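Technical note accompanying the year-one report. For the benefit of new consortium partners, we illustrate the data format agreed upon in the data management plan: each record pairs a sequence with a structure-token string. No post-processing was applied to the example shown here.
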Amino acid sequence: MAECERSGCEKHDSHSGAEAPKLSDLFDRGWKIFDEVDSTNDPLASNSVQVRVKRAISLLEETSRMASQLDLFSPNEELEEIATADLKYLLSPALLGALTMKLTGRDKRLEIVQTARAYFMDFLKRCKVYNISQFHLPESVNESPISDEAAKNAPSACTPMPSTSNLVAMAAQRQAKIERYSQKKELEARLLDVRRSVESGQADDETSRDFYLLNVRKWVILCLDEVQSIDQEMEILKSMDQMQLGAAQPARLSRPPMKPFILTKDAMQAQVFGAGYPSLPTMTVDDWYDQHKKHGVLPDQGVPRRGAAEDDTDAKEREEEEKEKQTENDDDESLMKARKWDEWKDDHRRGYGNRHNMG
């Protein structure tokens, strides 16, 4: 079909003096890196894994570009017309989608899943054209940012229970997923037997063709599951973006606090019996003080204030003056009375004679 063009890609580049990469080598290296990354136990976000993922994406993108230039696949062809050596290149979009899903980056997650979905859909549409497997092609989705109308219809915490039609659709999706899982297990078991012959180099053309077609059919099942998961994740990511946009909007201007009010059974009861508890204050202490100060009715207004030290000094002076007056006014009679009182206290204990009303 395009053997001469394909062989031309494998010749030396006379202009650059370097050997151009072979189409089969690019694809095989990209597929091998994917298998290594898919089976590794290293964290997906580690630098070593991400470097290999990006390297494999670059190799498979170059493979897809070269395959497109060589016109390896045409919608006017039948599956039997595709050369056995070219069947494996059908897997390029599927592997690109799977590698794209392994990229990390929380800020670019929506862009990543949208790109991966485009790769998966490209692979599924090509398989549908060649009628490689019987399946229903997923519906295309609008990959533009979420609109206001979609935001209103987005699922929320108070979403009502699904209707009967939705339940039937969910049951059908679950049954289809179970059937795909069974088909995948069957294909993997068949692939295990065929792979040994292909890797040993003893496989004939029919065995090699069966090996690549089994891989393509297995990836059809994987891509259908991936597209379903991506559609669910995209709804969540778009809802999260909408919530962040709402949170970023400026807050409303705060209004002044409302005055307290009282609810009573009726207006007449409130007028007769009152509210049933003390009335709420109508002004603060500061407001009351300012109002009385303005009218000059405070107790200390018009009276000069004296310091505490001056008050203590005046009290001591008055006490000394009273003592001096008592000393000057002492006469013989008062002295005699005081002496008798002292003598009486010496002869009688405290409380003596206090027997009034004791029976």
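Partners are asked to follow this layout when depositing records. Residues 147 and 242 are 9 Å apart (CA to CA).
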